[in-house]
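look at this fold:
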Amino acid sequence: MLANIKGLVDRLELSQAKAMMPLFEAISNAIDAIEEHRDGLSKHAIRIRLVASHDLAHQGGDETLVLDGFDIGDDGVGFTGENLASFKEAHTLSKVKVGGKGVGRFTFLKVFSSVHIRSVFQRRNETFLREFDFSIADELKGADDVVPIKESQGTKLSMRGMDSKFKGGWPQDPAIIAERILAHFLIRFAARSCPPIVLESPNHAPIDLHALFQSTVVSHIEERFFNVLGHTFALQAYRHRDGRSRHDLHLCANGREVTTNKLRDLLPELPEKFIDADQEPYTLIVLVTGEYLDDHANQERTRISFQSDDDPDLDRTLVSRQSLNRGIAETLRPLLATDLTSTNEEKRSQIAKFVEQAPEYRALTHPRYKELIEQRIQPGLTNEKLDEALLHVKRDVEDSVRKEVRHVAALFETETFEQYQERFQVVAEQANEIGKAQLAAYVAHRRTILDLVSQSLKKVRTDDKYPFEKVLHKMIFPMGETSKDVFFEQQNLWIIDERLCYHTLLTSDKKLNSVPGLENTSGKEPDIFAFFYDTPIGVTESDNLPSGGVIIIEFKRPGRDDYNKDPADQIIQRFREISDGNVNDIDGRQINPTNLRYTGYLIADLKPSLHRQVYGRYHRTADNEGYFFNLAAGNGCIEIISYDKLVKDAERRNRILFDKLGLHKH
């Protein structure tokens, strides 16, 4: 042999996933030998026999098929002198015309320790036998020795001693091995350029691969051509009726499969299985061929060279896998329109139902996003996964609309008013839909918060230890924070009063003298300030110079009935400190207390001891579920709100929004 075999074998790239490559190479060689007869493929045949490993488990009666090797026989022309010379040459050029790289036979020695060849061939109308071992140690010792024999032409190739690291790449079910052979040579089967092949295995019925092809693979949907960077590719899609299979994408070179990938990674809209008119499941097998793939397959036919995504400038002559995938997807989708009809209908129905509970995605049900949704959303997702998928689509739509808004704005100087108006109208409609979706999400958030408050109220009334006031405090505004620390969406002051959302500075669960501008206050805390349920929130309204407002909110534990004084006195004391005039704003400027308005909210259950403390001093609210009291100086008031009234009023204020989104609970 013209090269060191061990070195060639060591350098071969062969992963466990490609452990069946020696079988595929042997079948390919057998087909080539049969084709040399030039009398029709149907007159010949290939027979494969799987050989089990007689390990301890097998000896103990375990019938699980653990392979040690296989035999493959054909009635081709055999190892003629010309074929032997090619076999001896390390990088033979004899099969270049059919895409052969001349190194496939070295995969035999990569996976198996023993390779034996017995071949009968003709020379000048005489028949001879050539029998030898192919090995790393002895290479082709004895291959030149021939003896006359009276047998039909053909070759039997036997491989034994499978390397343990490759055993995981061989299925234990002969039917799956047959399917993989079929997939690897699918182009040949589809083109009727493959001789009859039978697969035999211990304790299993023989499998006729042509019959398997006819029963599981339906005629291709259609062949289409597409171009990527000047390279032409052909795509064929087949319906595969084997219920165990998945949707597969095969990149093929020189009539053979090189790589296999999950088609759903490329087309997420595909269901796990299609169902035909007879309610039978089927999957898709997609073959992609082209001169680029023929020219850029590696010598082992296990990989195809593409442009690097990390460094696209490295070799501009290569096609990127991303560009090829995009071309495959754009070509394949129109072919699958009919197949996907029922899947898309079910998907739209699922999304429509889901949107009832997640109205922030309602804009995505607009017809203009129909194709995007069909392509980006997998069918049959759980609600959690569907929410995640829709969120990604929504963000992409929002990004594209923002970019289009900037683009349209830039056109104002260059296009006519009529052209600008037309473009603006389209982008304005899209922006409006997104705005509606964002509003819907915020309204749904309000519905959720009110539901949580209601459920917490039920909990506290059945469990005296439940710290509802702490929970409510956190719901309305995070404890220990200021408005400079918290995003607008994280506070829910609207539960008490919508106007509270529009403040200049807000502090939660902090001593007043720790707040910038309030250093000159006493810093005193309410008697039970140390407890989580009795901490103040201070709110200053905007434009507080020269006038403005100060708001104090206090939470009292639900069900509390031990008041021995007016609980609102704590709020009044804080007002008095601020009105003394020793208070600056957050920018260090002194606040003029003359025109300040003071509002206090006390959130508590209206229990008998509370009624007694406010009797004669407070007025009842119109709904009789609370009290209010005007400060003696006429510059503010204090309102006592029951927890039930708090929730009920918030629901009333938001009812029209809940109704419009179908979120109101009657």
